[in-house]
Structure prediction request, 388 residues.
Amino acid sequence: MTAKVIPIRLMPANQQRSQAGRYAWWVKALSLLAFTWAFLGWLNEAWFFQFGSPLWLNRYTEEVIILLFGLWRIRAEKNAHTRKRLIILVANVTVLWWLIPWGFPFIEPYIGYLAGLPAFPSLHTPGTLTFFLVLLGVLLFGRRIICGWNCPCVAIREVVGFPFRHADHVPRSAWAWRWRHLKWIWFVLYLGAMWAMTRPADNLTSSYLGFFALVVGVPYFITFLLSPWIGNRGYCRFLCPFGATFGLLNKVGLFRIDYQADKCIQCGKCVKVCDMNIPVWQMGAANQGRVDSTECMGCGRCITACPTNSLALHDLRNLLRPGLRQDRHHLLHKADRHRPAYRRGLLASLALLVLLLAAAIYYSSQVGTIHELPARLGALCGLPSLSW
Ligand code: SF4
Ligand code: SF4
Ligand code: SF4
Prediction:
């Protein structure tokens, strides 16, 4: 029987990679300016209270920047799989992290801390319905569900921080690899936050959650500005407590990268393109062909960079279709923008986001937004009004 040949109408292999190039000083300066703008937006919302619009300094300033730079990056990206990921990432962040929470911050079913006002899409907020859905998604498809395709942090660091992906900026020593354990300190603090969120709101829990927001928020933005020294994914690599949680599920869930030692020529390209500095092929070789690092974001860069097709994604789809191999050919073929199936898939994904936006508008008009919650609860309890 003849094997099915997958046509790949794409660029030559050596141009398919999402390489970390060298960039002019003004591109780096522009990136640092955009990072600073996002930081000021957060500071303004947290402390200064000077401006209200997302374009002009509030917590959604970051999402506006992601959209602007994202359009640029999508146009410039040479790797078909990464381009597809950037389109979905920027669209997800725009709708789920900006338009809905900014315009229609409806009340989400949640378990726990009332005063935290978890409202969709608090994807990182323990106790919210979406948080549990994300955990399930991570179990089935890996950390890529959030850290690869749906987090403002990965979005801004990829679309704004791309000039700092080069080896000149990314620490790749054995010591840098060990420093990844630093995030478990933040993870312990995060467990404390989870505990506080299940308690009634009082001075202790409120102070602790304020403290937690500070130790997460400040390093989140400071690592933007440290990108020239620690690379564009410094926060994800060394500090993020949410990433640590998702990473644990990465380890026990269905996601991994399969490695075929007999094909590998040990060229090291998979390691060079990995923003998380994972020793990809070495881990596969030492672990019977399994690369199941807690750090892996499932971005697929190592897979599409591998010249011998030695690497392949593995997740729920492999369980449903045992013959499936999500290797370089597969990923690039699926992302070939000349294929009608690709265009249909992309349109369906974008239509789903528009549908979610419409549902949010309808739901918030029926149930109310977080701004109306005190009055509605007051009416429910027979009280004239309640305030936080
Ligand atoms: S590690 Fe944390 S900040 Fe980075 S992409 Fe994942 S959840 Fe977002
Ligand atoms: S890129 Fe492929 S061939 Fe090269 S070291 Fe990695 S797995 Fe081996
Ligand atoms: S190991 Fe591969 S898929 Fe995982 S983060 Fe690194 S480059 Fe991305």
The longest strand covers residues 256-259. The longest helix spans residues 340-367. The beta strands are 256-259, 290-291, 311-314, 326-327. The pocket of iron/sulfur cluster (ligand 1) is lined by residues 146-147, 151, 153-154, 235-236, 240, 242-243 (CB under 6 Å).
